[in-house]
Amino acid sequence: MSELKFPEGFLWGGATAANQIEGAWNEDGKGMTIQDCLPFREVGHDDFTKQFEFTSKDLEEALVAGPEANYPKRRGIDHYHRYKEDIALFAELGMKVYRLSISWSRIYTHPEDAEPNQAGIDFYLDLFKELKKHNIEPLVTISHYDPPLALTQEYQGWYSRECVDLFVKYAKTCFEYFGDYVKYWVTFNEVDAMERHPVTSGGLIEDRFTDIPFDLVIYQAMHHQMIASAKAVKLCHEMLPDAKIGCMMTKLAFYAYTCKPEDNLATQQRMRPIYRYVDIQVFGEYPKYLLNELSKKGYTIQMEADDEAVLKEGKVDFVSFSYYMTSTMAADIEGLEMAPGNTVNGVKNPYIPSSEWGWQIDPIGLRISLVELHDRYRIPLFIVENGLGARDTVTEDGKIHDSYRIDYLKEHVKAMSDAINEDGVELFGYTWWGCIDLISESTREMTKRYGFIYVDADNYGNGTYNRTRKDSFYYYQQVIASNGTDLEVKL
């Protein structure tokens, strides 16, 4: 490991998403999103993918559910009413940047509305002013897994071309009202994820598509998101010439389980679906391997005459990504132990430890990922999600001693420093996922906590919702104050 060193002005911070923290799901003119309809389910850690199972029947039940039903995203952590308190804690932590998302349905009660919802505009304006008061730079995700429910109910989710113009109208509104406060933007969260959870990424419910292969539905929906993203990027460059707008991917990372050529080939093939939509956003065109995949399946993506030109004109300024873990791939998995992960399973790696939820902890994998991404795209990188979900215990004196989170952070900061100084990676920021406890996306629970700030709430909404600083809060405060050069644990 080289000497710890980060660029001057490196953006240290934390990240959340509107649907996981705001709550106030039906207040002040906010429309419903698909996230408001996802129930909490008691599933084991190895069965978390069941949380992503969603049918038309589930939606019907959600629309008539009473207040006693457990829809965790409806309450979040009540950030909507506590944002000033939370931002004050972020400032005390020393955060230089805060990655957040805007809820489309809070800006437009219905996506077809001619005028935005003023109460939603005012909420985010007040939030951005509060961040500015504390000298915290916002990084805004325009769409983070919460498509308006109307896109599912009145259209066919992102399979419908109409979503493109509706999104661009929404993005333009964000640029108009918030452009004075926001320098960094991201169009879609984890844009590669639609095939893993099409409901939250695209508002797609599989049982509603009976006369077309569902994977073709996903290809078409992704094309529409690529066009919407490119148009938003171009618009941002025109309206906010000093701003930067990027894409965001899930950096799922796989090693070959053995040195057998078959395992290496399987690993390479597994990575292509992760890269392909970022390839479009960076290079402005479909990669040949994706076109070949569509051709072999006999699929034709419906495009408009100027779509190729739109993609060329809407290339992003930077690549941001989430990184939590690595896994391994084998051509034949029979008899091999599998490990759960970030919305995907892989073969368990015997050389690295696992979290309580089975995610394999691999800081060296972060360095490898940074090098791979920088070599591939040759534009600046930003880590917008990294963190450890764990079960925290509050001691009798009200403390949370989360040394495991500190250890995870320490080793990943070292990996970032090595990537910058040893490998020449251009990395300009890092936001820890869930700087404050929130509703987990993968398990929809509060028990799986990420934050440096503890929120007194359980999986069923019980609790005071009071905020408490964990040991990791003071450690990250130290890391930020030293610009990543003081990693000694002093607690």
From TrEMBL:
Active site: residue positions: 385 (nucleophile)
SUPFAM superfamilies: (Trans)glycosidases
InterPro entries: GH, GH_1_N_CS, Glyco_hydro_1, Glyco_hydro_1_AS
Pfam family, one: Glyco_hydro_1
Swiss-Prot/TrEMBL keywords: Glycosidase, Hydrolase
Family: Belongs to the glycosyl hydrolase 1 family.
PANTHER family named among the record's database cross-references: 6-PHOSPHO-BETA-GLUCOSIDASE ASCB-RELATED, GLYCOSYL HYDROLASE
UniProt-recorded name of the protein: Family 1 glycosylhydrolase
Native source organism of the sequence: Fundicoccus culcitae
